[in-house]
Amino acid sequence: MALEVLLVEDSKTQAAQIKETLESVGLRVRVAYDGPDGIREAMENPPALVVLDVKLPSMDGFQVCRRLKRNPSTQNIPIIMLTEKADPKSTMSGLREGADDYIPKDIFASEHLIETLQELGILE
Amino acid sequence: MAEVTSPYKMRPPVMQVRVEDSMDIMIVRDTARRAAGLLGFSPAHRAQLASAAATLAELVLKTGEAHTLHLNGVVKGMKAGLQISSETPWLAGVSANNVLVALKSKMGDLVDEIMLLNEPETTILMVMWLNEDRS
User: Fold this and answer.
1) 0.95 surpassed by pTM
2) B95-105, pLDDT tens digit by residue?
3) Residue A18 · residue A63 · CB < 8 Å
């Protein structure tokens, strides 16, 4: 059975694009459109991986990452932050909150995402 | 093309990106991730190195001059690392201390070392070393 990824992304357009990339490599994808919903989804039904945007309504991706990494039931789920905020400060904020990778949304994003999925053992 | 400067012994990978406009910043970021991956850095540390390389490329691009960013494996004793460097001739004669304070405040958390070398050309150089926690 295919592994499931929880995608936390508020833009429906971008969520559809990322979902398509993840499904193209055989993963199942659940989407949450804001931070609190993402945390609830991750706690109720822990996925194999969380792909997390930074700019989210009501709670940003850094806060979501921190909460998931501090909760014993979700702390071992790998988190990849996929974001438009590519500056050094944001990168270090994401990694310090426990993200396993921090990938800017640029023309190489899908490629980097799939490489990291392989690296983390989510894909063979 | 000028040789790459380093206080350390160099080893593969040896990569370079010509940076002429903002589109090239993405190529720098991608190339840094690949170089870091070849050396065995974890995805999180690849992200740090990619951010450092892109930030250096952006800073140098702001001068309005095209430049070449170099990414090289380096060795110090038993340690391997990735060096990111770019010649910055317009910094010749500028206080190294002032330049380093500015660079470290922007990128100091991303890499282990930031240096400004003056010979043979003025060059900004950054290194992250590979260790067990980073692979």
Assistant:
1) no
2) 888 889 999 99
3) no
Which DSSP category does B128 fall into? E
Report helix, strand or coil for A82: strand
Q: Output the six-digit token pair for B31.
A: 């190339």
Instruction: Encode pLDDT of B38-91 as tens digits.
Output: 999 999 999 999 999 999 999 989 888 889 999 999 999 999 999 999 998 888
Whether residue B134 lies within 8 A of chain A, CB to CB, comes out as no
CA dist., res. A11 & res. A19, Å (int): 12
Among the four given CATH numbers 3.40.50.1820, 3.40.50.620, 3.40.605.10, 3.30.565.10, the one describing domain B9-134: 3.30.565.10
- Whether the complex's predicted ipTM is more than 0.95 is answered with no
Residues in A closer than 8 angstroms to B37, CB to CB, are: 115
